[in-house]
Amino acid sequence: MMMLAAVVGVWTRSPAAVGAVAGAAIVVGRRPAVLIACLLVGLAGGWRSQVTWQAASPRHIGDYSGWATVIGDPAQYGSGLRVTVEIDGERFDAWVYGSPRRRLVDRQAGEMVYVQGRRRLMVSHVRRAQIRHVVGQFDIDVAGDWLDGSPLYRTSSRVRTALRGAAEATMDPDDSALFTGLVIGDDARESPEMIEAFRSSGLSHLTAVSGENVVFVLAAASPLLRRMRPWWRWAATLSLIGWFMALTRFEPSVLRAGVMAMLGCSSFVLGRQQSVARLLAWTVTILVLVDPMLVWSVGFWLSTGATAGVCLLAPPLAERLPGPRWLRAPLAVTLGAQAGVVIPSWLVFHRLPLVSLPANLLAVPVAGFVMLFGIPAGLASAVLTPIAPLLMAPCAAGTRWVATVAYLGSGVEPSPRIAAVGWLAVVAMVCALVIRYRWRRPLDDVPI
Question: Which of 12, 65, 88, 214 is the most buried (most CB within 10 A)?
Answer without folding.
Answer: 214
